[in-house]
UniProtKB/TrEMBL annotation:
The keyword Mitochondrion does not apply. It is found in: Cell membrane; Membrane. It is a multi-pass membrane protein. This is XK-related protein. It comes from the Eukaryota. It comes from Pleuronectes platessa. GO terms for cellular component: plasma membrane. GO terms for biological process: apoptotic process involved in development; engulfment of apoptotic cell; phosphatidylserine exposure on apoptotic cell surface. The lineage of its organism: Eukaryota, Metazoa, Chordata, Craniata, Vertebrata. Belongs to the XK family.
Length: 421
């Protein structure tokens, strides 16, 4: 039986790429609008915090994009043609560097994905594998942007609403939309990552819905608890974040991740994972997945309980009388419901339970990536002359869906054949 290395690029992928660009531009415009509102009202502190989050998120995303670009161009097949072609390649590298310095590298990756997707889907040209690869890169960059910017901004919005003790309908709608968007981005990344595991069953709409619900039900009360704590002890939320972030970064380091191709890049990745863990669980290493997840959720549940109790003790009884009791009861219930949905997902809806892996007996078990040939390369448009191995995504997919998670469905040789080693 012939084994397909990747999912084929479809019109749905192209539509999602276009939507991704539109979402990026709308998100950027809305951030500028909110920052302008803060500035015009004289709320310089909140204006500064919002601008700081925007700059931090943009810099982190551009750094990841640049690290990946440097890694990709050093792979076999990216050297360009001799003579004028080599000069053109060097010029494109310089242009790419300038775009990243100007914080435009992420946008250009979106444009490259649309361009490549249009060639594959509409013109029926080759490069379907690379188009899928581009969409996955963008999916992870959007996930990083979500937890570097959207999640902290959502916390800030709730904090502002609590601090001013004023809530308009548009604020509730905006908060609900932002929370839903964060949960959806996690689902989008999860679905994208599975496309690099051809032996795994595809995630259906029912499975995606349950996955979305448990992420929504876990992220929403976490953000709310942080905002409530900040509303009574605003000077300590930074200390709280710094302590937990350092603990999480140390935990990532102890798991010996090898996602990036350089030491600096790997520490950037570990620092980013520490930030993501401040809001949501994100598996980064092979083996003992259930144990790590249990430790994480136990820690976060305890921390959230401490945050809520602190808020209850320091709150203004008069100002919070209308919503204090409902919140202190509802938030823990929602989080526990999210844990229940997560358990339900892995027991009944995880795709591995629906279809056993189908593989050629002559191929290594559960190899998550394969050598593919490409026409174009992201921001740089260099003609490729040989096949490439997407080691970065193969490694991450292999770790994200560890052997323990799919116990009984993978062969032990998969670890020996892992591109991470």
């Amino acid at each position: 039986m012939e084994r397909s290395a990747f999912s084929k690029y479809s019109w749905i992928d192209f539509v999602f790429s276009v939507i991704g660009v539109c979402t990026f531009l709308v998100d950027w415009a809305s951030d500028v609008w909110v920052a302008t509102e803060f500035y015009c009202r004289g709320d310089l502190l909140w204006f500064s915090v919002l601008i700081g989050l925007m700059v931090l998120s943009s810099v982190v995303v551009q750094m990841f994009s640049w690290f990946w670009f440097k890694y990709d161009r050093e792979l076999p097949g990216f050297s360009g043609r001799p003579g004028a072609g080599t000069v053109m390649f060097v010029d494109r590298v310089k242009l790419c560097c300038l775009l990243h310095v100007l914080q435009l590298g992420f946008l250009c990756r979106h444009i490259s994905a649309i361009r490549q997707g249009f060639r594959v889907w509409w013109r029926k040209e080759e490069g379907s594998e690379y188009a899928v690869y581009l969409t996955h890169d963008l999916s992870m960059l959007r996930l990083i942007e979500t937890f570097c910017e959207s999640a902290p901004q959502l916390t800030l919005m709730i904090y502002v609403m609590l601090s001013t003790n004023k809530a308009r309908t548009v604020q509730f709608v905006s908060i609900a939309a932002s929370t839903t968007s964060i949960a959806w981005m996690v689902v989008d990344y999860h679905r994208s990552l599975r496309s690099f595991l051809p032996d795994k069953a595809k995630q259906g709409w029912g499975s995606s819905l349950i996955y979305f619900l448990w992420n929504l039900l876990l992220i929403a009360p976490r953000v709310a608890a942080l905002a409530l704590f900040a509303s009574v002890l605003p000077g300590y939320i930074g200390v709280h974040f710094l302590i937990l972030w350092l603990v999480f970064v140390l935990w990532v380091w102890r798991q010996r991740t090898y996602f990036m191709d350089s030491v600096a890049g790997e520490w950037l990745y570990r620092a980013t994972v520490g930030l993501i863990w401040y809001f949501s669980w994100f598996n980064v290493a092979d083996g003992r997945t259930r144990g790590r997840s249990l430790v994480y959720h136990s820690f976060i549940t305890t921390d959230a309980g401490i945050l809520l109790v602190t808020w209850w003790c320091y709150r203004d009884p008069v100002q919070t009388e209308s919503y204090a009791l409902p919140l202190i009861i509802t938030l823990p219930f929602i989080y526990l419901l999210g844990l229940l949905f997560k358990t339900l997902y892995y027991c009944c809806f995880h795709p591995k339970l629906w279809r056993p892996p189908m593989r050629d007996p002559g191929l290594p078990a559960d190899l998550p990536d394969a050598e593919v040939s490409f026409r174009d390369i992201s921001i740089q448009d260099v003609t490729l002359s040989s096949e490439l191995l997407n080691k970065r995504m193969a490694c991450h997919a292999s770790n994200f869906y560890s052997e323990e998670e799919d116990a009984g469905q993978t062969d032990k040789t998969s670890k020996a054949e892992s591109p991470c080693l």
